[in-house]
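stuck on this:

***
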Amino acid sequence: MKVQLLNPTLKFKYLLSFLFIFFSLQSYSNTLCGTIEGFEFTNGHESVSLVDSGLYAVSDLPGKFYINTKVKGASQSVKYIVENLDTGKKYSIIENRLPYTFPAGNAAWNLGEGRFKLTAILYKFDFGLGHCESKSIIFTLGNETCSADAGTLTADSETVVLANGSAMIS
């Protein structure tokens, strides 16, 4: 006794239906993708915008700060990759709840000072599925002091007299 397979036409109809549904869902999900608008140091009450190549003194930032990714539109998760450019150490997390923060859960920054590269990857779905977009910035975090030389001033003559609100110096 031979086993008969399903009708090839029926198989084709199932395959065609599956492909139609698959591509319909894909096109729908592409319309619901958010964008990364920027980053900020915040503690939930105060915030300081984070810009590429920025230098930030820890004393000028909010107490117990963390990094928040500002997003616009629909999204479900953000993957953070933070690299300390001085030590080469990398840290990676996926945040599935708004606000999308590093460290996750609004925990305070705990990576210390140094030069960092922050990469945030925005996803349509939880657990880093359905890539929307990614942005990277580099910033320096530390208590830097100014090392600029103020220069010198020299008078044009041995005595300088203030006349009509001005004096000549070089």
